[in-house]
Each structure stands twice: as structure tokens, then as C-alpha cells.
Amino acid sequence: MTTVNTPVLHPGLTPAQRDCLDALPLTGHHVVSGPPGSGKSLIAAHRAVHLALTGRPTVLLSRSNLLRQLLRDTLQGLTVPGAPVEAATVHGWVLRHFGYGAPRTQDGWFDWTSLTGLAAEKLGEDDAATPHLVVDEGQDLPPGFYRLARIAAASVTVFADECQRLTETNSTLTEITTALGRSTSRAEVGGNHRNTREIAALAERFRTGGTRPEPPFRSGPLPVVRHYPGFKDLADDIATMATEQPRHRIGVIVNSLRTASDLMRRLERAGLAHEPQLYSSAAPSGRYRDLDLDRPGVVVVHRASAKGLDFDTVVIADAESDSATDPTAATLRMAYYVMITRARQRLLLGWQGSRLPRHLEGLRGWTQMR
After folding, report:
1. What is the Cα–Cα distance from 127 to 12, expressed in whole angstroms?
2. Rounded to whole angstroms, what are the CA distances from 159 to 42, 45, 66, 142?
3. How far is 213 from 207, CA to CA, in rounded Å?
4. Count of C-beta atoms within a 10 Å radius of residue 349
5. Partners of 301 in the beta sheet?
6. Are the C-beta atoms of 141 and 89 separated by less than 8 Å?
7. CB 8 within 8 A of CB 50
């Protein structure tokens, strides 16, 4: 098996991203951390292409199906003939690897301890079929998954940011490294190539830990905090944005299925140039499951599925849904850190009700209050 990096053209990578990629050996386990906008998902796709050139099966994993779609589309422009890379969800990979009878715990998630035992029983049976695994947004998976991956994979490369842990079953960087073993290497990639300085500055108000990222070079308008009397006014505002910026991708991030369905119904009636899209994790397939994330227009998505995505404009549609939550709670702060950093150029935080939600107080100077 090849043990040194094979020269491959890497379009679109910055020098720092290329250096990070080229420094990763093709053997062993590695954990790469970086802030939002540093290009972790893009490097993960390139890393998977590197590993596929060794001749082993290579799988690029994510917990989110919507992120899987984005990674799949990224891979289409990178993969080398004869060295394919598969983009899959962790759920799909486990079912394919262990069958639909894979043991589960009472909460419905997989029994990682039992699966690790099953993987250990098969160890060495078919070495050539043992895959390389590359995991994006790895902080959203539990340590048990990494103990399984350590046995079930030839190598594991994890891209993660522990300031973006949104799931109940998550891991810190230390927990990931410990689960993969002592020889696991750690690397970092810096920079913010997504947000404007103004958006990044607002995100800093919600970051829960870690080293402060370097500010972006680009500047843009201040984020806006806006009160809406009702869903009609919010939908009208989103429709106006789509009309005024017909080439923009507008991500509308919601915390409520009621908000999502109401906005979608109104936007479908607005006669937009591009049909609005809605992602539902409950949909088995079709229109609400398979999205085109590259085309312009409005995409309505729940905050739980927003990880790893980016849009020209982001609308956080129902900030009032967090009014009863402690504004200092780490889970709330992480959620807003993730949502805010999805925006490339413009950001709007909308709310309804009679009183400004507490977590949006004290943002004058970082936002325009309307």
C-alpha cells in the first residue's frame, strides 16, 4: 500500500488548507480541528480523495444527511477515475456494515459497545475491504463510534470543532483522540474564508470556548435583528430578499416545524424566480429529502440540519422560540454560533412577540436593531 501522499491537483484550496492536507500521512488516525469557515469540509473531501488513491475503499462520513448531500456534490468534482469515494451518513454506513439487525440501545441509537465487539470478531478476515474513514463534523458523534471505527477502519481522519456540538451524543476533541488511541495525531487549520468581519464578530458573542479565531478579511453590512408582527411579514421580507438578490442562496433556519411549514406555504405562493426548497429529515426521499444546495433561491432547514452548510444570506427565522432558555446556556450559545456562521454576506435574526428575547439583548454595536 502507498504510504506517501500522491501528488494530486487541489483546486480551490488556500495555502494553509493545502499545507494541512499534505501534512497528513496516509496511515494512522488523525484529528483535525478548525473554526467555522476554515474549510474543514473541503479539506475532508480532498483527504478522502488522497486516501482512495491507496486502493482501499474510502468513505466520507457525516451524521447529517443534508451534509452528506453537500459532500457528495463536492466529491463529484474531485474524485479520480478508478479511485472512487463514497459519501455516506454514519447511520447508513453502520447498517450496511452490520446489517439492519445492528444492535441498538433503548434510545434508538446504535449500541456502540456491541458493534465494537462484532467488529473485533471479524478483525483480519478481509483486510483488503477494510475502509479508510474520513469523518466531517465529527464532534457530533459519540466516543463509542470512534472506538468502533478504530477497529473497523484501516485509518480514521476526523474533522471537528468542539464549539459546534449540537447533538446530544457528541464528543470533545480529547474524547475523540482518546477513543482512537494514543498514536492519534492532532492538527489544526485556521482562517475564516466564509464570513464577513461583522458576521464573525457577532458569532464571537456566542462562542463557548477554544482559541479566538482570526477575523476574516472581508467586510459587509452589520447583521440585523428585526421584529416581525407575524409570519406573513417574515415571509414577505424573505421573498423581497430573494427578488432583490436573484443569484443568492438564502438559508432560512428554523427551530420549529410549524415555522417551517408556514413559511414554505407562503413562499410557494410568492411567485419567486426559483422554487423554494424545504429539507425534512422525516421524508424518506423526494422533494423534501433531496435538495439542490448549489442553485440560487430559498432553502428552509431546521437548525439541527444546518451544520456544515453555508448560504449567501442566512435568516434565523424564529429566535423567539429560545426566549425561555437561559441565555448563558452552552447549548443555546453553540446553536447560535453555528447558525450565525452559516452566513457568507448577510445575516438576519428575526423574532416575534412583545419582548426582545434575552439572548438577543446587548447586541447593539454588533447588529442593527429594527
Report:
1. 34
2. 10, 10, 17, 14
3. 10
4. 25
5. 253
6. no
7. yes
CATH pick for 15-188 out of 3.40.50.300, 3.30.70.260, 3.40.190.10, 1.10.1270.20: 3.40.50.300
The residue among 143, 147, 130, 157 whose CA lies nearest residue 45 is 157
Cell output for 114: 456491541
**The C-alpha cell of 238 is what?**
424573505
Instruction: Return the C-alpha cell found at 286.
Output: 423526494
User: Where is 163: in which H helix or E strand?
Assistant: none
Largest CA distance in the chain: 65
Pick the CATH number of 197-369 from 3.40.50.300, 3.40.190.10, 1.50.10.10, 3.50.50.60: 3.40.50.300
Task: List the alpha helices (DSSP H) in 36-142.
Answer: 40-52, 65-76, 90-98, 112-121
End-to-end CA distance of the chain: 60
**Interval 65-102: pLDDT, tens:** 999 999 999 998 887 888 899 999 999 999 999 999 99
Write down the domain spans for the chain. 15-188, 197-369
Query: Can you point out the beta strands (E) in 137-245?
Result: 155-160, 185-188, 224-227
- CB neighbour class for 224 (10 Å; exposed up to 12, middle 13-18, buried from 19): middle
In the block, which residue shows the cell 442566512?
A: 314
Summarised one tens digit per residue, pLDDT across range 17-47 is 999 999 999 999 999 999 999 999 999 999 9
